[in-house]
Protein 1
Amino acid sequence: MDTLMTAIFPKKFAALLFDMDGTLLNSMAVVERVWGAWAVRNGLDPHELMKSVHGVRASDTIRKLGLTVDPDIEARELALAEIADVEGIVEIPGAVAFLNSLPPERWTIVTSAPLELAMRRLAAAGIPVPRHMVTGEDVTAGKPDPQGYLLAAERLGVRAEDCLVFEDAPAGILAGSSAGAEVAVITGAHAAAAGTPHLTLEHYTDVKAWIGGDGWLSVHRRYC
């Protein structure tokens, strides 16, 4: 059967910026185990808590709960537990091949995770480590603040308005949009961003990036 590649955005991009969890890799099994146990210890409903953890720094999530705990200490303990548990972490289908097709200076990751946890999860899923990754420790305000995406664009030497952001959760989508970037939403790991008005992709297996003669990236999807 013949295939047709169609541009998913009419504009071209200077760089592509990716969230990590839920966007390049699926860590839901770990998140549910570690955060679920933490919720029970603190008298919270694990299922309700899961609705608020996606794409946000752990300390920010805990701070909003109003518990009589130190958010930074609790976040560090959660990070240590997540670093120790990588069972079930896998790439979003096609993510590794898609990233490897990009020039290394034209993409990076913007994650709410601390660096040590990010490196552990990327290794577990076989995701390449970019040159200019931005983690939750690099910013003073986490997602949905656009600071992370603005910093990533700066490190790549491009304008955020000339970037395409791949995200999976409402906080990250808002961060990318607030930075002035276009946003594509990956839906294969969970349904946190259900109903988003942005373009959605389940995975990357049918997605290709081409570099034009002008040096700009265009992103295309394969249709059968």
Protein 2
Amino acid sequence: MPDSPKLDTTDRRIIRALQRNGRMTNLDLAAEVNLSPSPCLRRLRILENTNVIQGYSIDVDAKVYGLPVTVFVRVSLENHTESVVANFERQIRDTPEVLECFVMTGLADYLLRVVVADLEDYERFVRARLHPIGGISSIDTSFVYGVVKKTAVYPEVEGSGG
């Protein structure tokens, strides 16, 4: 993989514009970041080829899709041997209900963002997906009942002007 470039103000403006609308044309992107189309496309390709931009996705209404319940699950492991950690992380990577898994400091070892259809589906997830992994000492659950803010757009970086 090529080295990541040092980002400048224009690179960050390109990224933020695409985070707001990943389907915009290069012509629209160039106009928004005040570049001509050719240099804009060249910068975009560099950002993609160096994995600064790691992919494009869409934001889907989970309720309409059929997974209206979001759950944050804090998981602590019994011990932290290389094999226990590797097994847990491998199993979680292969669990489709887990959209994100973060390694944490503090009381829990991991924070999972899980989507399910309902409370019964969450119970099935715990019993059929988490418990069989083994090596888990505790599972602490928080159900989301509202969203105050959701964005995929990074804040501006001090001094980036973008």
